[in-house]
Structure formats: C-alpha cells, structure tokens
Amino acid sequence: MHDVPSPAGSRLAKPPWQDALFAAVDAKARENAELRATIAQLNARLYRANEARERWKLRQQAWHRERAELLARIDGGVGGG
C-alpha cells in the first residue's frame, strides 16, 4: 500500500503552464481595465461635444433670427421712406 502515490500529493504540484496562464489572464485584465477607462473618457468627450454642438445650433438659430429681423427692417425702411 505504501507504493501507491497519494492523490493529495499530486494536487499540490503546480502545472508548468499555470504561471504563464495567470500572467496572461492578468495582462488581459489590465488591458480590459485600460480599455474601459478609455471608453469612459471617450463617452465623456462625446457628451461634452454633443452639448457644445447643441449650444452652437442655438447660437446659429439666434443669429439667423437676428439677421432676418435686420433684413426685414432694412427692406421695410427703404421702401416705406
């Protein structure tokens, strides 16, 4: 009976590829975290860009209204004089 190896002893031995596997998983986890951070930054930039675009549209609409009012005054003043 003493010649049979114990299964408990073989469980304690680490496979030779385990360190490489854990290192690869750790590297992918870091890469994933970096990509998630980049995505969060890009989403924030996109949100700010959309806000700026909306403000630009509002300013542009105001300019067009003001221009139309000024042109209407000019046209009304020239012919009515």
Task: Label this structure with key terms.
81 residues, mainly alpha, 2 helices, 0% strand, rod-shaped
Radius of gyration using CA atoms only = 35 Å
State the low-pLDDT regions, or none.
Answer: none
Total discrete domains: 1
Along the chain, the helix and strand elements come as: HH
The global form is: rod-shaped
Compute the number of strand runs: 0
Q: Indicate the structural class.
A: mainly alpha
* SS field, number of helical segments: 2
Head-to-tail CA distance between termini: 123 Å
The percent range for helix content is over 70%
Q: How much strand content do the residues show?
A: under 5%
Description:
This protein is mainly α. It has one domain. The model has no long low-confidence stretch (mean pLDDT 89). Helix content is 85%, strand content 0%. It is built from two helices and no strands.
Question: How is the secondary structure organized here?
Answer:
Blueprint: H1 7-12, H2 18-80
Quick recap:
This protein has 2 helices and no strands.
